[in-house]
Amino acid sequence: MQTSENYVNFQELIDQKNQGFDPKNPPAQELIDSCVHCGFCLSTCPSYRVIGKEMDSPRGRIYLMNAINKGEAVLDETTSQHFDTCLGCLACVSTCPSGVQYDQLIAAVRPQVERNQPRSFKDKIIRFLIFNLFPYPVRLKLFLPFLWLYQTLGLQTLVRKSGILKMLFPRLAAMESILPKITLSSLFKNYADVIPSQTEKRYRVGVVLGCVQRLFFSPVNEATVRVLTANGCEVVIPKTQGCCAALPAHQGQEKQAQSLARQMIDSFAATEVDYIIINAAGCGHTLKEYHHILADDPEYKDKAKEFVAKVRDAQEFLAAVGLTADLSPITETELTLVYQDACHLLHGQKISVQPRQLLQKIPNINLKEPIDAALCCGSAGVYNMLQPDTADQLGRQKVGNLLNTGAAVIASPNPGCSLQIKKHLQLQGKDTPVIHPMELLDYAIRGLKIG
After folding, report:
1. For the 4Fe-4S ferredoxin-type domain, which residue ranges apply (predicted)?
2. What range defines the domain where residue 393 resides?
3. Smallest Cα–Cα separation from 108: which of 26, 185, 190?
4. Is 312 helix (H, G, I), strand (E, B) or coil?
5. Which of 119, 174, 394, 432 has the greatest CB tally within 10 Å of its CB?
6. How many Cα atoms sit within 13 Å of 196 on the Cβ side?
7. pLDDT for 286-326, tens place per residue?
8. pTM, entire model
9. Domain for residue 200, yes or no?
10. Buried (b) or exposed (e) across 287-307, using 16+ Cβ within 10 A?
11. Within its chain, how far is the Cα of 131 from the centroid?
């Protein structure tokens, strides 16, 4: 139940007059009208759970969209902050009994906010860094040696102990707090254009390497390629591929997202692959949304539909076509494992059973289920950098739930989630390994032991 104070604050917002959203793709009124305001979404919304205000829930945001559409509220700093607090986890989409397409509504609102709402100077700095660094692997690659030196020379320890970064630039400190252990091996990793199947070829598949995954989690990509080739796949890795556009798309950077999507489509255009495989949940969800991202592009809208039809999450693909490689135990004794549901797999792609099915094929695995498994960990792309306080509360809850299973290993299918979970494990004094499911399958196929 909401307090009368929250409703009074909300009423103050909708009493303000303005001309509404700009005419370029505002949130569709028919989608807004499909919400019957039942409130089922409230219990599953992570921002509402932490902040506790109606306006920071899906229902409240839809009220705001409706009011702005009708000129009864203004898109200003006060209203836009409630759109900013949305993690985009899509739990509400899974929960809604009326089938409200909140994902399409918030996707329409974010570019409106970016076009029409000025950001503070500090906000502009952090967003400039995020959107001019992370979506560009070449730039990120150039930055990697400096991060390695930052850690190797002990500067990271000094900065964290002093607290000066958090005091002066809290969002930059939030970005630094999830920095993984940097190695330089990914700088020298080069894949062949085509990697043959280790067995009789069943499929020809393309692999998307990602940005953060490519440089900070390169062993995951290597494991993915080995697992695919061990199960009858010829793997194609176009050198021209860049970012999937997930980060800019999720934050309303419309032109940047469209440009990156076109580049990705072009990079796979001549590959003649049966499927396009991705091993990162957030990236996969965006790849499957290209037909929406490029819906207004007459040259690419049909190409986008063809591309989307081929995209598969690695676990989704392997569960569908079946494993042909033999799996060996990855520990001498029973391994208690917990699988962390990434929101953009669970809610965005409706993939939850397949990863568990694959993990349970590994001998000696005892798979545990956490309470509140559908709760977002707080990573949500770059949310933990832009909204660190809310993200930290969610991260603590998520890690507590995972640890309460007693699992010795956490399986995480998304790099952002893995970084967030590792951060909060460290803050709670735990060293529980966080491993991608494709790495676990790779160990089992190669007969290796973990630990």
Report:
1. 25-56, 77-100
2. 335-446
3. 26
4. strand
5. 394
6. 3
7. 999 999 999 999 999 999 999 999 999 999 999 999 999 99
8. 0.91
9. yes
10. bbbbbbbbeeeeebeebbeeb
11. 15
